[in-house]
Amino acid sequence: MNRIPFVLAVSVFAGLAATSLVGAPSIPANIAAAVADSHRPDTDQQRDADRKPAETLAFAGIKRDETIAELLPGAGYFTRILSKAVGSKGKIFAVVPPRPPNSPADRPDPVARLKAITDDPSYANVTVLEQPLAVLSVPAPVDVVFTAQNYHDLHNVPNLDIAAFNKSVFDSLKPGGLYIVVDHSAEAGSGARDTSTLHRIDQAMVRQEVMAAGFVPAGSSALLANAADARTAKVFDPSIRGKTDQFILRFRKPK
Hints:
The chain is α/β, with parallel strands linked by helices.
C-alpha cells in the first residue's frame, strides 16, 4: 500500500501533536449520567479510574441523539456508556468480526461477548454488526466512529489493507463526523513493529494512516498518558496492565 514516508510523517506529526494536546475537558450531563448508569457491571466500574471514560468521551464530543459505530468493542466496556450517552433517540452499531472457523475452543465469540448488552432492554439502541474486517459498512452515515485499544489489531488481520479500511471509515461518516482512536503507545518511531507482540502502536503511524484517508486532525489528548510506562512491555503484562501509556486522537471528516 502507498504510504507517506514514515520518517517524514514522524517529524511532521510530532510538531502537530505538540500543538494540539487538550487537557481534561468538563463533563457534559449526558456523559456523566452514562458513566453513573446503575446497569454497568461492577467489573467495568472498577476500571473507570484507569480508563477515565467520562473524560475520554467528553473529549470525543459524544452528544445525545448521535449515531456511533464502535469498532471492536470487546466485552462492551464503552458500548454501555455510549448507549446511555446518546440516549434513546441515538444509535450504537457495535462492529465485530465473525469468529474464525479455526479459532481455539477457549477463544470467545465476538458476538457472544456482547450478548449481556444486547439482551438488556436498557441498551435497546445497540445493534451488533458482524462483518469481516476488510472495510467498515454501516446502514447509514454515522456521526462518530470510535475505537478504544484496538486500532493496532487492524495491523494483525491477515491481508487487511489499512488504507482501504480507513477510507471506508471516512466514507461511513457524515460530513464533519469524527473518528476517535484510543490505543496503547509504542516507542516513538516504531511504527507498526509492536502491534502483534506488545499490542502497541506508534501514534505517529496512526496519524499518518488516518490522514491519508482524507481526515484532518481535530486534537489529541494526554488524558491516558503514563510517563512511567517504558512502552517495552506487553500490554497484558501484570506490571503495566490497565496502566499503559495511551493516546487519544481525534480526526474530522471535512464538511
